[in-house]
Amino acid sequence: MKKIVLTALLAVAMVFAFAACGGQPADDGDDAAAPAAEGSESESPATDASADGPLVVGFSQVGAESDWRTANTQSMKDTFSEANGYKLIFDDAQQKQENQITAIRNFIQQEVNYIVLAPVTETGWDTVLQEAKDAGIPVIIVDRMIDVSDDTLFTCWVGSDFRAEGDKAVAWMEEKFADTPNLNIVHLQGTIGSSAQIGRTEGLEVGAEKNAGWKLVAQQTGEFTQAKGQEVMESILKQNPDINVVYAENDNMAFGAIDAMTAAGKTFGVGGDIAVISFDATHAGLEDTLAGKIDYNVECNPLHGPRVAAIIEQMQNGETPEKLAYVDEVAFDATTITQEEIDARAY
Questions:
Q1: CATH code where residue 102 lies
Q2: For 15-63, what is each residue's pLDDT tens digit?
Q3: Is residue 323 part of a domain?
Q4: Which of 18, 144, 222, 242 fits 228 for a cystine, CB–CB 3.0-4.6 Å?
């Protein structure tokens, strides 16, 4: 009898030992799932972590230099909310790449499921993105593009075709000034080295090369801010009184240029001596376009949150997103824009 009882107890102990070592499928409890999520080295750790709670997204934003950037940030915050099944870790880089590199490394240490990066500049990302890749964390680039030696360092990019934006503005200039043999252009550039600056600058410079009478009388960065745009424009006006066009690479710099021209007694916009071209088509920018202060405003849509969420959903389903996803955008002419168009827009 003692032998039978001892044998039975030994059998029970073996069953428990086998289950504890993973011999049977784990149940859905937190105790069973937690070790797998914490120690996963999968290429896409988000798939494993999603069973335990919200997907964790680390977002490194350039800063808050413009109305466009504010709208872009809000779109991400609205999308990656707890109500939508996410936890967002947001970092404002304050226009400094070193802050973004630090933020990405912090995201890696926190084992986020996805990293979203709106880069300050295009270059200088290889090392830190290799670290993210080694950690198995997908990186999604938004807005500005990056230039890396290995394009597998990021999963995909979503944003605007900045060169196409510049080309749209140039085409408008060619039509409007078809009968003007000579054109003096002031070029207010954005943050030097950013994709928006590079693309919009290329568009204008190619246009100037193609049109013999076009002259870039001044070309200087306003850093995408209204204050700097005004400061730079005030200086340019003192040196170049004969100006036909201001080509400002975003709305905020256009606002600054308008303030400078107003103070200098210059006429601008529809019916004025100086045509104003701007980019972004923010709500305030389009209000100025409707008022005739800005002649032509090229859209750069900042609402990337839902687009990034759609990419993450694809990856969660085991699908491979397109490497590059360009946003469809339009442009607005002061002579045709309506209040209804402005009111219908989400930003």
A1: 3.40.50.2300
A2: 333 333 333 333 333 333 333 333 333 333 343 444 568 999 999 999 9
A3: no
A4: 222
* Helix locations, the chain, DSSP H: 2-20, 30-39, 46-49, 67-79, 97-109, 126-134, 162-176, 195-210, 226-239, 251-263, 283-290, 305-316, 339-343
324 with 161: CB under 8 angstroms? Answer: no
34: tokens are 């937690």
73-123 pLDDT, tens per residue?
A: 999 999 999 999 999 999 999 999 999 999 999 999 999 999 999 999 999
229 found inside a domain: yes
Taking the model in full, what pTM does it have?
0.79
Among residues 53, 52, 12, 16, the alpha carbon closest in space to that of 35 is found at: 52
Q: Are 107 and 85 in contact (CB under 8 A)?
A: no
**β-strand pairing of 296-299 with 331-333:** antiparallel
